């Protein structure tokens, strides 16, 4: 108990440290919008949010108490991240035994992957917490199946679904656990399973129309072939060959050791891997050894089939989604498998003895310390710095000037709140250079001067054509750059842009 308490305190420090330091990024802004900031949150808002209705409603209530600062918006996730430590200890005890409790608690406390999502205004930290608690509650039902335990399981599973629908990816594992276990409780569990299934289906029914209309389910048909006009959801990264290894690397050391997410988006090919080859090899060696030892320990405990359903089956489903252009492959869609990944490591540490255990523990602690340091302090791994960009704009903005958001637009609007003129320009116009120039001139003609805030250009403009155009046409423009965000100040743009538009109109006449 003392070890779990100590690990929980460490988790609190790691998750609350610099919680509001980084800017909100685009997905966090979407979550904020879905939570109905500053207004009523009705039934229609709740039913429209299929990506985390419970989390969105809780965030709405929390904003009414704590406000809407970065720290306040992320605190519910941080709290869930802290509570995941005792939850993992409970699950480890039920699934592996007492000897795995301490390793599981410390691994949950220090995991850079868990810290990352505990410092983000998204429902994934809640999903991992309630997935862990739901699994532990179900294992308790194998020992004693009573009404109280069934209600607890239903509530925790519903909370996981209300945080993110990807809890459905481990339905086969839960079904196995309902059917397996102590034969003395088997009949009661079969009856309870029928009741639980009906109850969860009824609870999900109000969201089914929205779920049916949100995604193109026809793409999941095995004989579906992408039409020529069906663009991959996120270019070459929708279903990349390295997706599964990347997910395992992220589970092991987070997104802040090895190539950064921005680096991977901006540079295709092997260049980022070569630059970080040392870190990648050490990570693969340390966690590869622990993984092998953990799988052997799980096989000895009769948990290998559970592991396959928990760790591999969700990855197969998400990979199929990506191959059908239904959903991109991303480690965050596999967060329901993260507790299993940590339990594999916990099983390894529980079996290790002496010098080998100490050396591997030091190796993991060393890798995680570097990853967490870079998460907190290294701008190369930071989220896009919209706050810094708009602070620079506010410091120099003159009357009659405007802000023009290009690329990722919503965070610019968030940090530009209160400014008189904020517009947007779709970066996709770069595929038609003539149209892009015309649209830019049209936007520039609306104000005496323009502050262009560009971010996330790699998805729509991987060759940086927009930046090259700005450098060529406005070589002396004032510039500012921060992590993931670039700013240009174009002075006296109204007259020149209007003249260009006038000339273009005469040509067409």
Explain the overall architecture.
Strands 2-1-3-5-4 form a five-stranded mixed beta sheet, with helices on both faces. It is built from 24 helices and five strands. It is mainly alpha-helical. The chain has two domains: 2-225 and 232-381, no CATH class; 386-508. Helix 21 links the parallel strand 1 and strand 2 (422-425).
What keywords describe this structure?
5 strands; single chain; globular; 2 domains; five-stranded mixed beta sheet; 509 residues
What is the number of helices?
A: 24
Tell the overall outline. Answer: globular
Unreliable spans: none
Task: Determine the N-to-C terminus distance.
Answer: 81 Å
Q: From the alpha-carbon coordinates, what is the Rg to the nearest angstrom?
A: 25 Å
- Overall tally of structural domains: 2
Question: Care to count the β-strands?
Answer: 5
Helix content: 55-70%
β-strand amount? 5-15%
Q: Mean pLDDT score, rounded?
A: 90
What class, by secondary structure content? mainly alpha
In order across it, which strands form the biggest sheet? Answer: 2-1-3-5-4
Task: Give the gist of this structure.
The protein is mostly helical. It has 24 helices and five strands. The chain has helices at 2-16, 26-34, 43-48, 53-66, 70-95, 101-110, 112-118, 124-143, 147-163, 171-179, 186-204, 208-214, 243-253, 261-266, 271-275, 277-300, 304-323, 338-351, 354-377, 386-396, 410-415, 433-444, 465-473, 493-508, and strands spanning 401-407, 422-425, 449-455, 478-482, 485-490.
């Amino acid at each position: 108990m003392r070890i779990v308490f100590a690990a929980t305190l460490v988790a609190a420090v790691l998750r609350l440290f610099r919680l509001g330091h980084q800017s909100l990024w685009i997905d966090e802004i979407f979550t904020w919008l879905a939570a109905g900031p500053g207004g009523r949150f009705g039934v229609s808002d709740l039913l429209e949010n299929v990506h985390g209705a419970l989390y969105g409603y809780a965030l709405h209530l929390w904003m009414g108490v704590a406000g809407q600062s970065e720290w306040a918006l992320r605190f519910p996730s941080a709290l869930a991240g802290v509570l995941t430590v005792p939850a993992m200890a409970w699950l480890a005890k039920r699934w592996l035994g007492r000897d795995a409790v301490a390793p599981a608690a410390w691994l949950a406390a220090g995991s850079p992957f868990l810290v990352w999502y505990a410092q983000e205004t998204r429902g994934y930290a809640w999903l991992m917490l309630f997935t862990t608690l739901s699994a532990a509650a179900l294992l308790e039902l194998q020992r004693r199946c009573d009404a109280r335990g069934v209600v607890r399981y239903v509530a925790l599973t519903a909370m996981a679904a209300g945080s993110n629908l990807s809890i459905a990816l481990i339905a086969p594992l839960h079904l196995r656990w309902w059917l397996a276990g102590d034969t003395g409780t088997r009949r009661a569990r079969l009856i309870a399973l029928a009741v639980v299934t009906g109850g969860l289906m009824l609870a999900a029914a109000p969201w089914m129309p929205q779920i049916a209309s949100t995604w193109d389910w026809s793409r999941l048909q095995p004989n579906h072939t992408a039409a020529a006009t069906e663009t991959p959801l996120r270019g070459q990264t929708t279903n990349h060959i390295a997706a599964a290894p990347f997910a395992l690397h992220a589970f092991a050391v987070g997104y802040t050791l090895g190539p950064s997410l921005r680096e991977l988006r901006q540079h295709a090919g092997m260049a980022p891997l070569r630059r970080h080859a040392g870190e990648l090899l050490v990570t693969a060696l340390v966690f590869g050894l622990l993984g092998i030892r953990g799988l052997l320990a799980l096989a000895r405990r009769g948990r290998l089939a559970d592991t396959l359903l928990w760790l591999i089956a969700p990855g197969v489903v998400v990979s199929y989604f990506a191959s059908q252009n239904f959903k991109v492959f991303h480690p965050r869609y596999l967060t329901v498998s993260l507790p299993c990944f940590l339990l594999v490591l916990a099983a390894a540490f529980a079996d290790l003895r002496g010098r080998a255990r100490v050396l591997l523990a030091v190796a993991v602690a060393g890798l995680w310390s570097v990853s967490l340091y870079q998460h907190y302090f290294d701008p190369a791994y930071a989220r896009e710095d919209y706050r810094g960009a708009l602070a620079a704009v506010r410091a120099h903005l003159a009357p009659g000037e405007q802000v023009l958001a290009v690329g990722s637009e919503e965070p610019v609007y968030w940090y530009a709140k209160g400014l008189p003129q904020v517009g947007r320009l779709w970066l996709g116009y770069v595929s038609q250079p003539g149209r892009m120039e015309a649209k830019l001139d049209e936007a520039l003609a609306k104000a005496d001067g323009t502050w262009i805030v560009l971010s996330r250009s790699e998805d729509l403009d991987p060759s940086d054509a927009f930046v090259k155009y700005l450098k060529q046409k406005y070589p002396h423009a004032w510039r500012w750059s921060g992590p993931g965000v670039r700013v240009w100040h174009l002075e006296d743009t109204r007259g020149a842009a209007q003249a260009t538009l006038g000339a273009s109109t005469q040509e067409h006449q």
